[in-house]
């Protein structure tokens, strides 16, 4: 495995740690690893009749061309060595960021998007693999010039970091391919169903709220089951113990793509009903990098390379029409 920066966990300030664990845009690692082990792996992992996902070390990534006018905006201190220090979490999960079949090469949609941005900026990617918490420490100190790691924009994080968005923060409802359930988009759609969700997650809060609304309306309550790992929930879905699973869209979309035996019946914002959550590239506040990051992202969005990357990982439904700088984020946590 490639070497990683070893910043001591004890050095993480309490405020940064709080920012790290809040609204991370993903379920616990166990669930994510379950997604990987439950699906076929390898460069020829099948996804239905016509879709394959390459999980081998030779990725043949989609590449972009340097745009001189955007590259010229990169701060001199960052551009000086010709490299862009990009932070990813070593606790990653398919299809976001994970180890390829050689158990050494770090691959995924996050690495592909980072490569596109670096190409437009005329820089070489310098991957830095570390813990989730240390992504925030590294970005704040400047050791990590940018982080691409499924980071959700929040109002608290915007005090310390700048953000350039590139995906929606989305949840999904997964059902068996043969299920009679056609759509789940509102509370009434889950009345009386056997459903599963990760404990302590944003999606659990949404599900419990929907269930409470149904009870108040005199509808049947849902039968909610909990599984520690995503793989266990998938087994329950396949056996019929549950009728639907509510979880992070990336893991579900990847599993749907590689397994071919289930489908997505509906999606919802990871921020809840009042705000569309957004995933963004994160950089140190006021370091001058966020504008070129934003323009690089908009360049690849417009020329189609961005869509090509999302589609190759089964995440086309998380595409955004335009990258934004520091949009409204998840509300501040009440103290």
From TrEMBL:
<keyword id="KW-0732">Signal</keyword>
<feature type="compositionally biased region" description="Low complexity">
    <location>
        <begin position="34"/>
        <end position="48"/>
    </location>
</feature>
<dbReference type="InterPro" id="IPR001638">
    <property type="entry name" value="Solute-binding_3/MltF_N"/>
</dbReference>
<feature type="signal peptide">
    <location>
        <begin position="1"/>
        <end position="25"/>
    </location>
</feature>
<protein>
    <submittedName>
        <fullName>ABC transporter substrate-binding protein</fullName>
    </submittedName>
</protein>
<feature type="domain" description="Solute-binding protein family 3/N-terminal">
    <location>
        <begin position="83"/>
        <end position="317"/>
    </location>
</feature>
<feature type="region of interest" description="Disordered">
    <location>
        <begin position="32"/>
        <end position="59"/>
    </location>
</feature>
<dbReference type="Pfam" id="PF00497">
    <property type="entry name" value="SBP_bac_3"/>
</dbReference>
């Amino acid at each position: 495995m490639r070497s990683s920066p070893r910043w001591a966990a004890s050095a993480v300030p309490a405020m940064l740690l709080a920012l790290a664990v809040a609204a991370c845009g993903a379920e616990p690692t166990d669930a994510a690893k379950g997604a990987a082990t439950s699906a076929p792996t390898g460069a020829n992992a099948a996804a239905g009749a016509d879709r394959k996902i390459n999980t081998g070390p030779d990725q043949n990534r989609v590449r972009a061309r340097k745009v001189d006018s955007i590259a010229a905006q990169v701060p001199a201190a960052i551009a000086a060595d010709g490299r862009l220090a990009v932070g990813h979490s070593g606790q990653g999960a398919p299809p976001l960021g994970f180890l390829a079949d050689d158990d050494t090469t770090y691959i995924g949609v996050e690495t592909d998007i980072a490569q596109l941005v670096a190409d437009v900026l005329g820089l070489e990617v310098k991957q830095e693999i570390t813990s989730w918490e240390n992504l925030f420490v590294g970005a704040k100190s400047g050791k990590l010039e940018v982080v691409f790691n499924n980071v959700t924009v929040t109002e608290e994080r915007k005090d310390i970091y700048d953000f350039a968005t590139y995906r929606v923060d989305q949840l999904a409802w997964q059902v068996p391919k043969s299920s009679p359930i056609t759509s789940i988009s509102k509370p009434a759609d889950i009345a009386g169903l056997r459903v599963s969700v990760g404990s302590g997650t944003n999606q659990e809060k949404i599900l419990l709220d929907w269930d409470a609304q149904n009870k108040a309306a005199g509808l049947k309550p849902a039968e909610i089951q909990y599984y520690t790992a995503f793989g266990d929930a998938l087994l329950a879905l396949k056996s019929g113990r549950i009728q639907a699973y509510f979880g992070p869209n990336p893991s579900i979309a990847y599993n749907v793509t590689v397994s071919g035996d289930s489908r997505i019946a509906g999606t919802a914002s990871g921020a809840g009903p009042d705000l569309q959550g957004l995933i963004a590239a994160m950089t140190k506040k006021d370091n001058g990098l966020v504008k070129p990051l934003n323009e690089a992202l908009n360049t690849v969005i417009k020329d189609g390379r961005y869509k090509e990357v999302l589609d190759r990982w089964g995440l086309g439904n998380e595409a955004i029409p335009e990258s934004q700088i520091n949009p409204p984020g998840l509300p501040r946590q009440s103290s």
